[in-house]
Amino acid sequence: MIKFVFFLFLDVVAFSGILISTLPFLIHNYGGDIFIITLAFGSFSFFQFFVSPFWGGLSDKLGRKPLLLMNCIAELIANIILALSGSVFIIFLSRVIAGLFKTNVSVGTAYIADITDEHNRAKGMGMFGVAFGLGFTIGPLIGGLIAGSDFTFKSLSNVAWFACSINFINLLYVFFFLDESLKEKKDYKIEYSLEKFKSQFKTIANQKLFPFFILIFCIHLTFSGMEGTIAMWGKETFTWGPREIGFIMLLAGLTQILVQGGLLRILLKIFSEKQLIRSGYTSLILGFLIIPSSNINLIPVAIILLCYGIGVTGPCINSLISKASPPHLKGLALGSAYSSQAAARFFGQPLAGFIFLHLGKNYHFYFDVVFLLILAFFYFFSNLKHAKTLL
Q1: Which helix (H) or strand (E) holds 88?
Q2: Quick one: CA dihedral 217, 218, 223, 226, positive or negative?
Q3: Which residues, 6+ apart, have CB-to-CB distance to 317 below 8 Å?
Q4: How far is it, in rounded angstroms, from Cα 249 to Cα 256?
C-alpha cells in the first residue's frame, strides 16, 4: 500500500503545484481574465466527470497499472505543453489532455480496493486521503516558492518543468516498482461504463438520496469558486503572487489534514454526523463572509473556517449516504457523490469568475453567503419532507 500512496503523493504534488499557485498567474500574463482562469480550472472537472467511469471500467479489463502509466504519460505531455505554451489556447489544450487522461482517483480507488480487504479498506482509503491532502499541501507551496512573489514568464514555466520532472520520476517508479493489483481481469465493453453513467443519474434522482447530492453539489459549488478565484483576489487585494498563494494553500492543506486526520474522529464521539454538518456549514458561511473584509490578519481565520467546513461536511455527508443506501448500491452512491463534486467544480468555478469579472472581486463571496443561507432555510428550518429526511 505504501508504494501506491507514494505514487499518489508525487502525482498530486506535480498536479496541484501547477494548478493552484501558478496557472492563474500564467493565464493572466497571457491576457486571460478571471473568467478564462476559472474556466480553465473547471474544464478539468468537466472532462473528469465524463471519462472517470470509462477509465475505471477499462482498468477492470486491462489492469490498474497500464492505466496509471497512462496517467503519468498524459500528465508529462500536458506539463511539457504548459511549459512551452505561448498562449491561452495552448494552456487550455494542456488542461484538456490532463482532464481526459487523469486516472489517479477512478483507478486509484480501485487499486486500493484490490489490495485491501473489508477489515482494512477504510484504513486504505484513509491513507488515500492523506496522500491527497499532503500533495495538495506541499505542491502549491513548492510551486509558489519556485515562481516567487515577483514572478516572470520564466519562473512560471519553471514550475511546469519541475512538475515534468516529478511526472517523469513517477512514470519510472510506476513502471519498475508498482505491482499490478488486479488478480482476475474481467470482460469489459464501453456499454458497461455508459450503463454505469446512467445508473449514477438514477441514483442521484433517488428520492431518499437526492437531498444529500444537492447538498454536496451546493457546498462544492461555493467552495470551488473560492479555490478558482483566490489567487487573482489576492493579487488585486494584497498584490500577492504565487509565493503567497502557496503559503495560503499550505495553511488550507494543514487544516484539512488536521480535521480529517484526527479532529473529526474525536468530534464524532461527541456529536452526531448531522450536528457536525451543521457546524461545518456554518463555518463555511462565516469564512465566505470574512474574506471580503480584505483584512489581511483575518484571511488565515477565513481559510481555517472554510477548510474546517469542507473537511467536516464531506466525510459526514458521505457517511450518511452510505447508511441511507441499500447494500448493493453503496459503491454506486458514493461514486455518484464524487461525480456531484466534479459537476459542482465545473459550474462553480466559472460562475465565480463571471461574478468576479462583471460585478467585482468580492461579490461572489457575498453570493456564496446568500446562496448557502437560502439553502440552509430549506434544509435546516423548513418543514419540507426532504429536509426532515436529511437532518
Answers
A1: helix 88-101
A2: positive
A3: 212, 215, 216, 277, 337
A4: 10
Is residue 204 within 8 A of residue 213, CB to CB? The reply is yes
DSSP element (H, E) containing 37: helix 34-62
DSSP state of 184: S
Enumerate the domain spans of the chain.
1-187, 189-391
Residues, the chain: 391
Contact 25, 242 (CB under 8 A): yes
Q: What is the CATH number of domain 1-187?
A: 1.20.1250.20
Are 220 and 340 in contact by the 8 Å Cβ rule? The answer is yes
* pLDDT, one tens digit for every residue, the chain (391 residues): 789 999 999 999 999 888 788 999 999 999 999 999 999 999 988 898 888 878 887 888 899 999 999 999 999 999 999 999 989 999 999 999 999 999 988 888 889 888 888 777 767 777 887 888 899 999 999 999 999 998 898 999 999 999 999 999 999 999 999 999 988 877 766 666 677 777 778 888 888 888 889 999 999 999 999 999 999 999 999 999 999 999 999 999 999 889 987 898 899 899 999 899 999 999 999 999 999 999 999 999 999 999 999 999 988 998 888 888 887 677 678 778 888 898 999 999 999 999 999 999 999 999 999 999 999 887 766 544 444 445 5
Q: Does domain 189-391 have CATH number 1.10.60.30?
A: no
Contacts 24+ apart (CB under 8 A), 343-346: 343/45, 343/49, 343/217, 344/216, 344/217, 344/218, 344/219, 344/220, 344/221, 344/224, 345/41, 345/42, 345/45, 345/220, 345/224, 346/42, 346/43, 346/45, 346/46, 346/49
